[in-house]
Design a protein that fits this description.
Strand order of the largest sheet: 1-2-4-3-5-6-7-8
Order of helices and strands: EEEHEHEHEHHHEHEHH
CATH superfamily of the largest domain: Alpha/Beta hydrolase fold, catalytic domain
Number of helices: 9
Number of strands: 8
Structural class: alpha/beta
Radius of gyration: 18 Å
Shape: globular
CATH class of the largest domain: Alpha Beta
Amino acid sequence: MVIESFAFETGGAELTGLEAGEGLPVIFLHAGVCDKRMWLDQMAAVAEAGWHAIAYDRRGYGETTSPDEAFNHLDDLDALLDAFDIHAAVLVGCSMGGGLAIDFALRHPGRVIGLVLIGTSVTGAPWSATEAEAMIEAAEEHAFERGDMDMLNRVQAHEWLDGPRAQSGRVAGAARELFMDMNALALAKPALTQEQRRPEAWSRVGEINAPSLLLVGDQDFTALIDRHEHLSEEMPNAFAAVLENVAHIPSIERPELVNSMLVEFLDAISGGGDAESDDDSED
């Protein structure tokens, strides 16, 4: 399966991405400690299953470049869909990418065919941490205040890749190397100080009627596991699953598991047949 690069401009930014396959579009939205490369395995699986896989680097991540100008990630996602002449898509988001998918679904319900939310953020959601989790958050804050980006990257790899209650280095090999590289790029980017705040979504998640797959790892933050349970109760068309021995970035930790669940979900919402390209007919 050939994965091709693309770029498009919005405002003063040039957003970069990857695409593969043909059919109904599946837009992948990366976590705040990653970039578009966290989805490479899923893109290949989705494209092979007959869908058009698209992943892009948001402002402040990966290969995307942006001046420090006023912007909103929702408007940038709109611009991506316009660039591809896409009317409606399935949105797959992890962490902050999931929060963006939720906000987009609330703003444009007719443009969302389905949602896959992994360890998702939700704009305006509450947060709490256990004592062990608070300790690693304190280490993260200390590294940030010292300006030690290498240490910050290592702490965040423990926090998000291994899991805040797990042994540091639990996830090794290519997955760890990829995480460290993606997050290092994000940490080295110039600060963007003019991002526009998005409306609170926590009290509105029950309005999302699109079929949704909710996933969370049992090694993730307890607040995210609790949030997962809340969303599974509030969102009327959601199927929820907790992944065992997985933390916040299952797409690179357990790609085969995520791939199988994702493709099964896409088959279900497309009626079990091959997805065929007809973007303008979906609403």
